[in-house]
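DATA SHEET
Item: assembly model
Revision: 1
Owner: S.N.
Input lines:
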Amino acid sequence: MSLTRERHAELKRYAIQLRRLVVESVHHAGAGHLGGPMSAAELLIALYFAELNIDPDRPRDPDRDRFILSKGHSSIGLYAALALRGYLPIEELATFDAIDSRLQGHPDMSVLPGLDMSTGSLGQGLSPGLGMALAARLKGQDFRTWVMIGDGDSQEGQIWEAAFVAARYGLDNLTAILDWNGLQQYGWATEKGYGVLDRLAAQENPLSRWRAFGWNTIETDGHDFPAIFSAFAAAKSHRGQPTIIVARTVKGKGISYMENDFNWHSKPVTDQDLKQAQDELAAQEAAL
Amino acid sequence: MNLSTTGEMLAQRDAFGDALIELIDRDPRVYVLDGDLANSTKADKVSRERPDRFLEMGIAEQNMMGVAAGMATCGLVPWLSSFACFIVNRDLDQLRVVVAQPNLPVKLCGAYSGLLTGKTGKTHQEVADISVMRAMPNMTVLAPADAVEVRACMLVANDLPGPVYVRMTRDPEPVIFPADYEFELGRALVVREGTDITLISTGAQTPRCLAAADELASEGISALVLHVPTLKPLDADAIVAAAAQTGCVVTTEDHTIVGGLGGAVAEVLGERRPTPMQRVGIRDVFGESAPNEDLLQKYGLTPGHVAQAARALLS
């Protein structure tokens, strides 16, 4: 996909708006995850505003593309994308985590149309995506299934069960996207302590792991729209294997004090935090 | 109705394989997912006779449960073939999050339930599946008595809009139901009329319970036998009515007495009609590998054990 300057700016604006809605919603709710939604912002906008064949007015259309957020704790990022795309009123984001809300702490497909799967217990999103891709093949439908996983998420063994079986069935209508931000809630012991960015460690290289499991692998910058769209195009044109797009991202991206700080995995946002985030995002928007 | 064993012996797992073929032929939504146990559960009949409807998922139950959930959201009805011990335990979190919470129509065959698993021992004996599945919101829990009821309840389970767990056994057992038996969801059946005591049973323990009633009848004790093939939703009215009719109750199951049929009956009677009762089942222990008759004897599940509990309660 070639991006016009205007379209590129529009998508960047949506990503900024998503980040603003995330930080405002978590501030309002008094709790919530921030780092993950921020690292996934451009990927979510690229999917919901360009890639996915979807219609907010027909969220149950059997021929729609499917999207599963396996890293379900980034729910508020997905809700913000859905709201911007017209699945729910923007104002409804203020109900995040409130009693009777459709916007549960982790995505609940039984209450919110537009969610293709319930997730939240880590490692579980890829298998239903495999099931959807299989169903499309069995029913002769040509929709595509996308699953976003996290690097912490992929420490669960079930991800690798699904990786093995999806490759075994050669499901080229299934694309996983790894939001590879290199951090998780607490992390592993390193010489510098816990919570340290360690994605460069050789044993953590997801590309070789996924290749070993029989997947087509594509690496991309997860914050750069043209790079993301090239990766999407390459994934869709690949035949005979499922594809994983390993997207290099920055946890907390876009808010200076959150970037690469594992403490912002999940944390209440103070009034002062909110003000600074809003100011930074406003400056980014003005610079477009 | 007054039922007795017909003399015919059939394995529930064979009925499972046959019923899957029947479901596949009548319902284009049906697919069978197998966790590398098809030649044990008898889902292998599908792989041979309807190979397009059979999907091998390998030894990866957690993934299999998730795959089933994804297929169910696309309008298919997946039937999972695995052992009860794995389908209840190995993928319990997957069952909870992507099947039960979204209330998806995934059908779970818990094969090789109870103690009689062909000398596999405690790792492969699932004696708490009723307790676990009963505690899972949105789940329908079935335990058919014989091969006829396996088929009959699968036909009903297939069309339910949510998840269903069907508890099945491995070895040939006495058939008690006539071939034209129709399963009614949520209904307990009086399979033997009686006035002195109520015996409440589920699953393949019911034929043994009927044998216990025969033994008691020879001593002049008239036992009502209530068969409970639907553990959830439970037919509380039938349990209360039977307890009211006879004034005392023995429950029996090839399952732990903690939270299973006995626990469920105690909950109902405790709240609605306190009644003297005894639970005959596995007494909070793990099993072991041994011949079936030895297991039934050691763990207290023979007709004689049920009859003895009835005598003790009556005296």
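QC remark: Strands of chain A lie at 66-69, 145-150, 174-180, 216-221, 243-248.
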